[in-house]
Write a structure and sequence with these properties.
Blueprint (H helix, E strand, L loop, with lengths): L1 E5 L17 H6 L4 E4 L6 H8 L4 E4 L11 E2 L1 E6 L2 E6 L9 H9 L6 E3 L7 E5 L2 E5 L15 E8 L2 E8 L13 E6 L2
Parallel strand pairs: 1-2, 2-3, 3-4, 6-7, 7-9
Antiparallel strand pairs: 1-10, 5-6, 8-9, 10-11, 11-12
Length: 187
Amino acid sequence: MLIALISDTHLPSVIRQLDELGPEIGDFLADADLILHAGDVTAPPVLDWCEMYAPTLVAEGNNDLFEDPRMAKRQILDVEGWRIAMVHEIRPRSRPTEAILETHLDGERPDVLISGDTHVEYLDPRDDLLLVNPGSPTLPHHKEFRLGTVGLLNVQPHELTAEIRVLGQTPGAPNPGNSQKLVLSAD
């Protein structure tokens, strides 16, 4: 199963639709079986746009001042034997793993915890947990609107591949994102 990860789209603002930056975001979502948005959507039409590609779930962000049945404070899924959880923010990430899990998941222990909020992409494996932040496809590293980063989980029964993908370059506005890839094996 291919799970597309996005976060911190912050629309509408200078741009009103995700495809205004070019076809890269839509091209990325086209192969997804599921889209997980780690919050700060800011407008329900973004979710409707994502749903043109695949079913979409959202972790409510601090700027998501609307209600939507696809949105919850946290999302927890079981996919192909892997437990995947998503919340909007886990700052500071430097805290011990158990403190992060207790604060944001009431101690529940997933295999993967997806978050957003920082606009900075990372894959951080530790203590039998993979922390993933896909960054922002529209405001990478809190810079002005430009192409940024997204994440991808390829979930199979005995293997999970996590990736951060750089979407491309916006003319005159370099993409500060970094591609990353990590493969986990089930025990």
